[in-house]
Every structure is written in C-alpha cells, then in structure tokens.
Amino acid sequence: ALRNLPFIVVSNPNIRQIYDKYETSLSTLLPWWEKGKNPVRTLDDEVRFTQVLADLVRTHTDTIPILARGFLEARRHISPADVTTFLDQHLRARIGTRLVAEQHIALHYSSQPHFNPDASPTPCLDHPSFVGVIDTALRPADIIQSQAEFVAEICELRYGTRPQLIINGDPDTTFAYVPMHLEYIITELLKNAFRASVERPGNTEPVVVTIAPEPSCGEAVQIKAPSEERGNFKSDFIQPLDDNAPGVTIRIRDRGGGIAPDVLPNIWSYSFTTFNDDFDDLPGS
Questions:
Q1: What does the record give as EC number (predicted)?
Q2: Residue 278: its pLDDT value, please?
C-alpha cells in the first residue's frame, strides 16, 4: 500500500521512515523464503527465525504514531478519502501479520526448552488457558473492569470527575480471543462513553456494559436488569446481527446525548477529532 501513495507523500520524513522499515523487514525475511518449502528444518533454525521475528516486531512497534504524524504533515498533498483507504488496507494487513508473528513468538517462548516469557516482545503468559497470545477462556468482564479503571483515571485528571460503571448481564461469560485486541477496542469505546457522560450537563447516569453469552440458536438474549435500572434504556434484549457469526455480545451504553449530526459524517475518518486541533503549526498545514 505504501508504494501506491503519491511520491510527494512518501517523501515526507515520517512516512519515508516507515517505508524504509518495511523495505528492510522484507529484505530480512526474503532469505528465509528463498530457502524453499522448508526454511526451518532444525531447532536451531527455529530459534534463529524466532529471533528475527522478535526483532521485526520490536522495530515496528511505533509504526502507527509515526504514520499519523506523517499524514498530518502531508495533508496538503493527499485527500482524507485516500488516507482512509490507505489506512484501512494498511491496518488490516498490519493486524494480521503482527498477530501471526506474535503467535509464533509466544508459542516459542512458552514452550520447552525455550521457556522464557520475559524475553518475548509480546505477552507470553504461563497460564493453562493461553495458546500463544490467544486466551481460550478470556473473561471480558475482567478486561472491561481494568480498562475502565484506566480510562476513569484519565477522565478524573482532565475533568475532575468520573462516571460510574455498571457491568451486568453475564459477567462470567468466557470466549477465545486475543486479550490485547479486546483491550484496545474496549479502551477506545469507554473513552468515548466516559467523555460524553461527564461533558453532558446534569448527567449522573452510569455507563452500563452488558455482556450477553453466545445464544444457542441465534435467538435474542434477555438480560435481567436490576429493578432500579429498568426503564432507563429501550431494551434489555441483545439480538446478534444477522450477518455476523453467533458469539458473545458486549454492549456499552451511556447517556451522553449521542453523536451530534454535524459530527456523524466524520466518525470513520482517521484524522477527525472533536478535541481542539493543536496541529495548526505543523509543516505542510
């Protein structure tokens, strides 16, 4: 995707830095591919290959913030629609390739005789429910609670207050997932919900997170809400989307007033924010 960008955009120092990193990573991995169908034949080969992957994962840790800075600086030379198209493709590829690499690394460092979780650049937990970076018994309520504490502290530092959080439904529900992915998703959603709640004048309603287990036959799942909460929201039923595979459903509700009509068309734009713009003096602005 980087090669499809206009030359003047790739000439930006930050974007060029990322381009060079990916070019170097490709040249590092190509010798392994050129070895044929079985590039890893011995345990020593596997150790060397894992070290290569670990180094590459560390190299690309800060790719996203550097890219973001580059696109802000080059925004005169590329349209927001083209930036969105590029980032959609790039992030999908990045998530997939990074997950494959981190899974291999975690499996390596959690296995014998290489057991050394501290040496892994990615979480590698010595826990029976983990297979590499995948937790086969992930309890979303735990992640929601921990990330809510993190977001609440930020909220309190900025606004001097924090909204109450209620987790209801079936908090003991578990499913197989990558914890760090769910942590990122939950954090971003809670940031939006907490901010909307505290910025709405006179709002004292809690942020309510409902966890519904996987339905047995795709039927609606009824959640028994406490009596004091009934009537606060339109429905206590969570219906899985028809075009999605059945699974655990997590619903986050706040009383922050919803998305303003003038903001709605921009919510999927990577460069859009409702915070004050502090980048007016950037080169290229």
A1: 2.7.11.-
A2: 43
